[in-house]
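Take a careful look at the protein record below. Let me know whether the structure tokens fit the sequence:
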Amino acid sequence: MVDLGANGTAIDVNAAPPFTPYGQKLYEATISDAEWSSKDPRNVCDPIGFPRSYTYNYGIQFVKLPDRIIEFFEQGHATRDIWTDGRKLPPNPPTLRFYGYAVGHWEGDTFIVESNGYDERTWIMGENGQRNPQHRQAGFPHSDEMRVTETYKRLNYGLLESTITITDPKVYVGVWKSSPKQITLVPDTEMAEHMCVPSDEIDFNTRNILPALEKNAAGK
């Protein structure tokens, strides 16, 4: 088992291709109607999915089994199976999943993961208003045709290099390839139970977000 902390592998925003007309429509639907990210699926404790889990500065673990590698994410306390039993990535997985359907194989000392079958309710990552005239927070959307390729290579005992490539011709004009990122091993640590709890989320919004929105509206 490898315990990886402080991954900080944010996908390069500047490398994002332009939206297709359909992608632009999806993007506009994510633009917040307030100063905070009001349309983020996280606000109602929906799973953040992959590759968004890849972009947070939280720990991840890989556990190797005979037929698969299980990847654990501290953020959201989520997991996914990466099948390594020789199967091919199916062109159309039977069901869409927040964390997709993934297969992996080794090429020399590099582990390559290919995945598809993503539930389109998730975002690839959040967006801080760079692409909308309101400069309000939004999200990078994707379709159920998104395909993701990851590579992982151990540079030394404590350092893992990773890349991620996103292909979604329905939403983006071109391939979105992030530059290599380095993930640092944090030995002798344990994964925290970092979960989104609906009752806590509702309480926080009721005590903080809603009063702030009402105050903001009254001041206009």
Observations:
- The first strand starts at residue 2 and ends at 5.
- The helical segments are 21-30, 198-218.
- The chain has two helices and twelve strands.
